[in-house]
Inverse folding.
């Protein structure tokens, strides 16, 4: 794996598929990981400081779950804390290069 100049090594660990570009042609773009807890899988996302966390969550769900229609049933966590206002930007919630945004079900499902 070859890393881009602004891509931390940690973003390449256990990620699948191509990088998802959510930053467009923003000059302040950096790479993070979006991880879906239930799938035990992660993707690389290129985001800007102004990218809303909700966009990161729905892109992660679309890539790893195959659907973003049930996004309201999932929460996003940054550094172990749930982000309740997902309209906040990546910069506002403390996301920086190499950060993992963990997406998981809001309520636990019983094991049968």
């Amino acid at each position: 794996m070859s890393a881009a100049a602004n891509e931390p090594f940690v973003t390449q660990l256990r990620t699948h598929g191509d990088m998802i570009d959510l930053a467009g042609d923003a000059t302040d773009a950096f790479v993070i990981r979006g991880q879906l807890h239930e799938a035990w899988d992660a993707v690389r996302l290129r985001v800007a400081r102004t990218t809303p966390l909700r966009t990161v969550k729905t892109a992660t769900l679309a890539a790893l779950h195959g659907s973003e229609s049930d996004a309201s049933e999932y929460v996003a966590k940054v550094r172990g804390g749930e982000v309740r206002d997902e309209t906040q930007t990546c910069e506002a919630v403390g996301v920086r290069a190499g950060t993992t945004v963990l997406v998981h079900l809001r309520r636990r499902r019983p094991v049968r």
Remarks:
- The mean pLDDT is 85.
- The two ends are 39 Å apart (CA to CA).
- Residues 78 and 94 are 8 Å apart (CA to CA).
- Residues 53-64 form the longest helix (12 residues).
